[in-house]
Design goal:
- The complex is a heterodimer of chains A (about 425) and B (about 220).
- Chain A contains 15 helices and eight strands.
- By secondary structure, chain A is of the alpha/beta class.
- An eight-stranded mixed β-sheet of chain A has the order 3-2-1-4-7-6-8-5, with helices on both faces.
- Chain B has two domains: about 10-135, Methane Monooxygenase Hydroxylase, Chain G, domain 1; about 135-220, Glutaredoxin.
- Helix content of chain B is about 70%, strand content about 10%.
- Chain B contains six helices and four strands, in the order H-H-H-E-H-E-H-E-E-H.
- Chain B has helices spanning about 10-65, 70-100, 105-135, 150-165, 180-190, 210-215, and strands spanning about 140-145, 170-175, 195-200, 205.
- Chain B has a four-stranded mixed β-sheet with strand order 2-1-3-4, sandwiched between helices.
- In chain B, strand 1, helix 4 and strand 2 form a beta-alpha-beta unit.
- In chain B, helix 1 packs parallel to helix 3.
- The N and C termini of chain B lie far apart (about 90 Å).
- Classes of the chains: A alpha/beta (about 425), B alpha+beta (about 220).
- At the A-B interface, helix 1, helix 10, helix 11, helix 12 and helix 13 of A face helix 1, helix 2 and helix 4 of B.
Chain lengths: ~425, ~220
């Protein structure tokens, strides 16, 4: 490797080690926080307005509404509002059927205006002080509200509570990989809450105080990822965002690579845009761990991982091309060479013991450990999804790097897209 | 609206920075130690083979006492042993040298010089053995240099022949840039100015020799 490449590689790895060590410290000094204790519900349960923005979710909206209504919560303290964002399919029809059954309210947008607009519109008519938002293709566990309400009420500074989001019935390999990813994110989100740095309130049943939402001006209608924007806005206003590991909601994830690509480009471009929008928080002590650590290092770590993986791929391509060229020199008689290679373990070990290899092995071990920890925390069984987890650990990062680089490039070139 | 500051646990990050730096430093230290070990092990190997070569020289003296028929098999066997060991050293040296982590360049250069002297001694003895015992073995002295575009290809082709012919071919790779008198003497003797250059069974071949060229030269 060329010398500057080595230096850059070391710097990138140092960033990585720093972030990993930070999380280890957070984890080990807050062990107790990762097991949720049962909490007491207040005598009078507060009212909750559940907002369900829907655009062409005809085949799933009924299930979502049923799931929400099946929650273990008094019906007279629950309000369900479906916002039909000018759907072209039977979403509107089904919503009105449900409305006729007397169980929900329906708002219809004459033109498609996006999720944020729909939520803001529903906010104006929601009658309760606690707002829950859920996508029309998702479902919840019945006890979810009972788990999420107490942390919200515990402290006037808490403005939002986030759930543990899982993938519903992953089937193909791609979904199983994302299942592993979501399990890891449950763990990460909890860790973030421990240092009060949650930067995304997932749109799959996060709950908010209505007063705070109104105070900060509601959801940003021009944003790619309004779930990140609203979280940063809440943090910016000085409030806290909590998380419960036992408040479980389920969502659908893309089953085709093309759809995954579209989804991730949108997410990552949104993340970049929001980081820019809230750049005044970066390295400012008043914004605490979020401003000093999370926002800047999320960005820096993406750069670091891109650098590391680019160097890995570069070396791989370099070796591959060299190998092919060398084959041409000996008329592809590679059989002669193989018997020397495999039968000499001492030489192989001698060659492998380089710093890069040791670092990579260390990184894999740490990554694997965090992944295993995530299983335990989410009550998931490793054996049920072995293939997904291994693929996630070793292969998925390359895809993610590609998605991040694409997102950066698109963002820099200001490529316009209709989502 | 709580306009207070958000929680900043500076302690966590300072500890993390310190631990990370320690981890990194120890990682680099371990890497350094491993590299030293590598070079030390190479030095030990060279020492062993040098002793073998010395034994080899002594065994030559048996020729006068016991005659060719008795001595040649012994000499040929000793030569095979030296062949294997020195080839292994060459590989280790090369992999060490091509890594980006050569801590002590001087040590490395000295080891290379010692190895080159060993090789040349070995080559001289092998030639003597070839003549005396009429051994069916090909010797190739391979001169390479740093700024030589075709040297990497040449090394690879020679490795191929080595793997294919094993003990029937002895290859001695010499770094022409090395400030080692015995190498410089050979360069002058064979008039080597371009790299790669090969001396195959005493004949000089300037420039890259392909697989086909070598097959022709070695009558394969």
């Amino acid at each position: 490797m060329i010398y500057w490449m080595v230096l850059v590689n070391y710097v990138a790895w140092y960033v990585f080690v720093f972030i990993a060590v930070t999380w280890m410290i957070v984890l080990f000094s807050n062990r107790g926080r990762f097991a949720e204790k049962s909490v007491n519900m207040p005598k009078t349960l507060p009212g909750v307005s559940v907002l369900i923005p829907a655009y062409n979710e005809g085949d799933s909206i009924r299930k979502t509404v049923n799931s929400v209504l099946a929650m273990d919560y008094p019906k007279n303290r629950l309000e369900v509002i479906v916002i039909d964002d000018a759907s072209g399919d039977e979403t509107g029809r089904i919503a009105h059927e449900l409305e006729a059954e007397g169980r929900i309210k329906v708002i219809v947008n004459p033109k498609n205006r996006g999720k944020a607009y729909s939520l803001n519109r529903a906010l104006k008519v929601a009658k309760y002080d606690i707002i829950a938002c859920i996508d029309a293709d998702s479902t919840v566990e019945p006890d979810i509200l009972r788990k999420m309400i107490p942390p919200l009420l515990e402290n006037g500074k808490v403005a939002s509570v986030t759930p543990a989001l899982k993938v519903l019935k992953p089937e193909n390999l791609l979904e199983k990989i994302q299942h592993a990813e979501y399990i890891l994110n449950i763990f990460l989100r909890k860790s973030l809450s421990v240092i009060d740095s949650i930067h995304v309130t997932p749109g799959v049943f996060s709950i908010y105080r209505k007063s705070v939402l109104e105070e900060i001006g509601g959801f940003d209608e021009k944003n790619l990822t309004e779930d990140m924007e609203i979280a940063l806005s809440i943090q910016n206003a000085g409030y806290r965002i909590e998380n419960r590991l036992d408040a479980i909601s389920y969502t659908i994830c893309p089953s085709k690579l093309r759809n995954l690509f579209d989804q991730r480009i949108r997410w990552y471009r949104g993340a970049l845009q929001n980081t820019v929008k809230y750049r005044h928080m970066i390295f400012r002590k008043r914004y605490g761990n979020l401003g000093m650590f999370l926002l800047p290092f999320n960005f820096i770590s993406i750069l670091a991982v891109i650098i590391i993986f680019t160097i890995i791929l570069w070396n791989f391509a370099d070796n591959l091309l060299r190998g092919i060229w060398q084959m041409t020199l000996i008329d592809w008689n590679f059989m002669v060479l193989i018997d020397g290679f495999i039968l000499d373990p001492k030489a192989m070990i001698f060659n492998m013991l380089t710093t890069s290899f040791v670092l990579m092995a260390l990184g894999t071990v740490i990554g694997g450990y965090i992944l295993l920890k995530s299983f335990r925390v989410s009550d998931e069984r490793f054996s049920l999804n072995k293939l997904g987890y291994f693929t996630y650990l070793f292969i998925y990062p390359f895809f993610m790097m590609f998605f991040w680089m694409t997102a950066m490039v698109f963002e820099l070139l200001r490529i316009r897209r209709k989502w | 609206m709580p306009r207070g500051r958000k929680r900043f646990d500076a302690g966590i990050f300072i500890s993390a920075a310190i631990i990370s730096t320690l981890l990194f430093a120890s990682g680099i230290f371990i890497g350094y130690s491993i590299n030293n070990e590598k070079l030390t092990s190479i030095d030990d190997n060279i020492r062993k083979v040098t002793r073998d070569v010395q034994n080899f020289q002594i065994e030559f003296l048996f020729l006068d006492v016991l005659g060719e028929n008795a001595t040649c098999p012994l000499l040929v066997e000793t030569l095979s042993g030296i062949n294997r060991d020195s080839y292994e050293i060459g590989n280790k040296l090369e992999s060490y040298g091509s890594g980006s982590e050569i801590q002590d360049y001087n040590d490395y250069v000295n080891t290379k010089r010692e190895y080159s002297r060993l090789l040349i001694g070995y080559w001289l003895l092998a030639n003597k053995l070839k003549n005396t015992c009429r051994m069916d073995v090909d010797t190739i002295v391979y001169f390479y240099s740093k700024d030589c575009t075709k040297c990497e290809d040449q090394s690879f082709v020679l490795t191929y022949f080595k793997k294919m012919l094993n003990e029937k071919i002895l290859i001695f790779a010499l770094d022409a840039d090395l400030d080692e008198p015995s190498i410089q003497v050979l360069k002058k003797n064979y008039n080597i100015t371009e790299y790669p250059s090969l001396v195959i069974n005493g004949g000089v071949y300037i420039g890259y020799q392909s697989k086909a060229d070598l097959e022709r030269t070695l009558n394969l």
